[in-house]
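Let us work through a complete example step by step.
Step 1: write down the sequence.
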Amino acid sequence: MSFAREGYPFIAIGVLLAGLGWVGVAAGIGGPWLRGIAGLFTVMSLFTIWFFRDPAPIVPADAGAVVAPGQGKVISISEVDEPTFMGGTARRITIFLSVFDVHVQRAPVSGLVEHRAYKPGKYLAAWNERASEDNEQSSIGISTSQGKVLVRQIAGLIARRIVSDPSEGDDVVRGDRIGLIRFGSRVDLFIPLDWEIFSSVGDRVRVGSSVLARLPLEN
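Step 2: predict the structure and record it as C-alpha cells.
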C-alpha cells in the first residue's frame, strides 16, 4: 500500500505525537489523562494513514473502458450543459467521496490535457446538487480521438484543499493520478452523450478500476 505524498506531514505529526504520548505513559508521567491523549493521537494517526492511502488501480484491459476518476458512490447521472470545455450538453456522472474513501483522483481516459480551470466558491455538503455549481472546484479537460472528457474535483463541507497534478499540454494515461481532495468531496465526470454508460446511481466504484462508460468504437 502506498500513500499520497500530501499526507506525509499529517502522518508524521500524528505518529510523532502518539509516540511521545506512549513514551510518557511508559515512563509513568501524567497518569490516566496522558494515556487517554496518547490513545486519541493513535486513533487520529491511524485514520490519517487510512485516509491518505493510494492503492494502485487495477486498470481494465479493455482500451475503450472509461474508468472512475474518483472512489465512492455514484449519486447522480444526468444530462447537463457544460460550456467551458465540453461545448454544450454532456452526460455528468457524479461520485460522492466520504471521508472513508480513497481521495486520490485518476485519469478516466488516456489523452491530452487541453483545459485547466480553478474556481473558488462555497463549501456546501458534497451531496448537495448545488455543489457542482457553487463549491470550490478544479477542472481538468482531456481530449481523446473519440471526444472530450472533463473531470471536476469539487470541495465538500469539510474539504479545504484541492490538488490538481497535470498542466495543459500534458499527456495522461488512463489510471494515472491526476489529483487529490481533502477531506469529503465529490468528483463530476462529463462525457459525450453518445458514449455508452455502464454505471448506475447507487453503484460503489473504485478509482481507476471501475468502468463507468465506454468510448465508441473507431471506424
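Step 3: interpret the result. Helices lie at 8-26, 32-51, 131-134.
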